[in-house]
Amino acid sequence: MSRISFLHGRTGTCAAALLITTTLLLSGCGAGAGTADAQAAEKDAKADKAAEAVPVEAVAATRRAVAASYTGTAALEARAESQVVAKTSGVALAVLVEEGQPVRAGQPLVRLDPDRARLAVAQSEAVMRKLENNYQRAQKLIGQQMVSAADVDQIKYDLENARAQYRLATLELSYTTVVAPISGVIASRSIKTGNFVQINTPIFRIVDNSRLEATLNVPERELATLRAGQPVTLVADALPGKSFPGVVDRISPVVDAGSGTFRVVSGFGEDAQGLQPGMFGRIRIDYDQRADALVVPRLALLDDGDPAVFRVRAGKVARVPVKLGYAEGPWVEIRDGLAPGDQVVTAGKVALRDGTAVQVIGAKPATAAAATPNAKKAESRQ
Hints:
Layout: H1 3-52, E1 54-60, E2 62-85, E3 90-95, E4 102-103, E5 108-112, H2 115-143, H3 149-174, E6 177-179, E7 184-189, E8 196-197, E9 202-219, E10 231-236, E11 244-251, E12 261-268, E13 280-297, E14 308-313, E15 316-321, E16 323-328, E17 331-336, E18 343-347, E19 358-360, H4 366-381
Parallel strand pairs: 1-19
Antiparallel strand pairs: 1-18, 2-9, 2-13, 3-5, 3-8, 4-7, 5-6, 7-9, 9-12, 10-11, 10-13, 11-12, 13-17, 14-15, 14-18, 16-17
Helix pairs in contact: 1-4, 2-3
């Protein structure tokens, strides 16, 4: 074999090998480009699908204590209140108390001019003493038959009348010192020193703040659930951020035929520091409690008929009928229809229908979670 033919054959062999290698490289590059295009298309499709999902807010059903209660509004009243009036006429010589001052039952409040009353006492006492002496002499003379029995009886009746007049005058004298009929606080004063006070004129108002009451007019359907002794919680508008414990004091046994309600009176004692008569309060009476109830927010309930919620599963919602139990504040008990941990839609319900795709705001999208491993595998192959 000549040198020329040898070189020529060797060159042909190398060219063939180079051609095969180039073909393989080109085919490999083509396959890689096709895989990348497919992954990009799949990613775009998933992005479009995620973009079509309705954004919502959802909360998981949880267990907590929930109480059954009746709520209402009422104004606070003092359990004991007295309008002090003058029982006799006279000039006020001294006013002994002021508004806001605590007083005790029997404590003097005002001293009126007692001169006229004292003279009346002295006059009636003189008449009484005279008749007492006359009666004593008549008792001695009747034994000697010097006076008749009828005269003795007349003297006796006159003496009894004089004694009554004396006691009445003494009572009128005692009225010149006006005293507190109950213990409490002076709420108002309508008299000043030197004023002439007419009989039966209101001069003070005393309020007993040691125990306050609130009266609710409750519908008759609650008659079987409420009873005396149940715990009560009051929130007053004038004292925001505070709540005051109380108890159901008494319940009227009669339902008002006109309004269909009955009266429930709640009492608030020494624990109600800061409350004053006349304050407006919101009252809640707890009549039952469940310590481990399945609850969801009230916002999750649908307003289209029977109780129902939108439950979120696998990126879609389903309308689930539920059976409701007790409701307390923002929570409502679910007796049937949900399980602990089920997510229910609380915001964005208007745009939803049964089977609508949703994206829970604040949750990691499921499509993104699924696409991330595929992207990592594609990078590793490249």
